[in-house]
Design brief:
The complex is a heterodimer. Chain A is of the alpha+beta class. Chain A has 12 helices and 10 strands. In chain A, a hairpin with a 5-residue loop joins β4 and β5. In chain A, α8 crosses α9 and α11 crosses α12. Chain A starts with 28 loop residues before the first strand and ends with a helix. Chain B is mainly alpha-helical. Chain B has 7 helices and 2 strands, in the order ββααααααα. In chain B, β1 and β2 form a beta hairpin. The radius of gyration of chain B is 25 Å and the shape is elongated. Chain B starts with 13 loop residues before the first strand and ends with a helix. Classes of the chains: A alpha+beta, B mainly alpha. Chains A and B meet through α4, β6, β7, α6 and α7 of A and β1, α5, α6 and α7 of B.
């Protein structure tokens, strides 16, 4: 989490667990995330917590997190001295939420070295535990989160009731407090205009489908996030099973449409699309975040489907991360105006991908 | 683009997949109208937060004759709860229970928890524990404000003991 030294590649070049690009079904499933919402007894929830209580709670929780015996080696990052740019970087690395980044009260995040565990303190709930694993791995990710949750329950008095389970500030998280999300790369479904149908199938069983990048419902770069909406009345295993089943179906669907995009007359169109994206990345002098994500998506597809030679997925993943405004500015070590950012982005992506001039 | 396999007229927007042991064994493409006819139209996504609470509380079911009081645990008023869609403390779950249940039903299609709890389900619920924690904290604050330091010290010890005791 330290600032990069001049001359080295800097920690922003490390992709973190969520962008490793490995794991089961990693051609389509980028990452699995388990999030648990937890609150402490004896303190009001965030909406009624005053600043003094928030500070006291933070000190209490951090003290307990630092006691030996936790199954994860976590380093606590106090957000008070962290400036806006570094907070944006943490958001882009999925370690803190946008809400926590904008919060003025005493707060922090405890992270492991691989960035596969992040415990936010004083978010909408007192604790938001996040565990990441590359690819599609709901069960393994859950087991790791459960082990950490057990240890946290041992050292912190959690708010719960037999009737409502874990008590949360927002009724949408009550019960298990579990949100299981899988980040998916679905260029096939988007290009063949089947994505809305896939979204409908997921919604039918109460799963939320959102774009991973960008605001609102538009998914930039064909990256989507599928997660359970229901947290009450279904136990953890049921929730895991439902998400796993639906995501498995979407992954299979994506494979089928990809195969169709590579057959017959569709193939030349697909090749054209992938190569145009590469051409843009090689030659463009000004690249918006949106255009960069679109081109990198096509490139990722092209590499996975063996349409492009000489490029590797890890480089595309790094490019995906570095094309984000926070990482871009941190890398260039200066605050940039949006138009300057677009210029630097084009230049940096050529460097990272080792192409063009 | 595919036409609906049921009516053959409209554009299909929904795919019904047949699953056997998790594997897709067949699929059907249908339009929204046909999906509704056979009762498998995707549900409208639930609305959240303030809007949802307004819906649940602001309609005809709102017991106007018996206005709710603020939560004794945190002071959250019914108006706050309705406008923010958030609960203020564990006790709010009791205070606003009557209004919360239909809300939970709409969000989760359920009103009670299934799954993990911090302790085995046979252990009695620590119903009064949180209340006493909140009470002790409030009394402690009062004692400090009133400069009753001896009382404050013993309350602080009691609070520490309660916190160490955990949820069991």
């Amino acid at each position: 989490m330290s600032r990069p030294r001049r001359g080295d590649k800097g920690p922003e070049f490390r992709p973190g667990t969520w962008l490793l690009g490995t794991g089961p079904e990693s051609d389509i499933a980028i990452c699995t995330r388990v999030r648990l919402a937890r609150n402490l007894q004896g303190y009001p929830f965030a909406p009624r917590l005053d600043d003094a209580d928030a500070s006291e709670l933070y000190t209490f929780v951090v003290g307990r997190l630092q006691k030996p015996g936790l199954p994860e080696a976590l380093q606590v990052l106090d957000l008070a001295p962290v400036d806006e740019l570094e907070r944006t970087v943490l958001v882009e690395r999925h370690l803190i939420s946008r809400e926590l980044a904008g919060s003025k009260r005493t707060s922090g995040v405890a992270v492991d070295a691989e960035e596969s565990v992040a415990v936010m303190v004083n978010e909408e709930d007192h604790l938001r535990v996040q565990v990441f694993a590359p690819g599609l791995q709901p069960e393994a990710t859950w087991r790791r989160a459960e082990r950490l949750d057990d240890a946290l329950i041992e050292r912190l008095p959690m708010a719960w009731s037999e009737e409502f389970g874990f008590l949360t500030a927002c009724p949408t998280n009550t019960g298990t407090g579990l949100r299981l999300s899988v980040m998916l790369h679905l260029p096939g479904l988007v290009w063949s205009e089947e994505i809305d149908k896939a979204t409908n199938v997921a919604q039918k069983i109460h799963l939320a489908v959102r774009g991973l990048y960008g605001e609102g419902s538009r998914a930039l770069g064909d990256f989507y996030q599928v997660s359970n909406q229901i947290t009450l009345g279904r136990d953890e295993q049921t929730i895991l099973g439902e998400v796993q089943l639906a995501v498995g179906r979407i992954v299979q669907w994506e494979r089928e449409v990809r195969a169709a995009l590579l057959r017959g007359s569709a193939r030349v169109k697909t090749l054209d699309r992938v190569n145009r994206a590469l051409g843009t990345l090689e030659r463009a002098q000004i690249l918006s975040s949106e255009e960069a994500l679109g081109c990198l998506s096509a490139m990722r597809f092209g590499i996975r489907e063996k349409l492009l030679d000489g490029f590797e997925i890890p480089a595309v993943n790094r490019a995906l991360l570095l094309s984000q405004p926070g990482h871009l500015q941190r890398h260039t070590r200066e605050q940039l105006k949006p138009e300057e950012r677009d210029q630097r982005r084009a230049q940096l992506l050529r460097e990272v991908l080792g192409c063009g001039r | 683009m595919q036409y609906c396999t049921a009516c053959q007229k409209a554009i299909a927007t929904i795919v019904i997949m047949d699953l056997t042991e998790g594997a897709v064994t067949g699929s059907q493409h249908v339009c929204q109208a046909c999906a509704e006819k056979i009762g498998i139209a995707p549900p409208k996504p639930p609305k959240f937060s303030a809007e949802l609470v307004e819906d649940a509380l602001g309609g005809k079911t709102w017991p106007r004759s018996k206005p709710l009081e603020a939560c004794a645990g945190c002071g959250m008023t019914p108006a706050d709860f309705r406008s923010k869609g958030r609960l203020g403390c564990p006790r709010c779950y009791d205070t606003f229970r009557g209004e919360l249940l239909p809300l939970l039903q709409r969000i989760h299609e359920a009103q009670a928890h299934r799954g993990r709890l911090p302790v085995p389900a046979t252990t009695p619920v620590p119903a009064t524990e949180d209340q006493s924690l909140c009470d002790v904290r409030r009394r402690l604050e009062d004692a400090v404000r009133g400069e009753r330091y001896e009382e404050a010290a013993s309350l602080r010890d009691a609070l520490r003991k309660l916190e160490r005791g955990g949820p069991a």
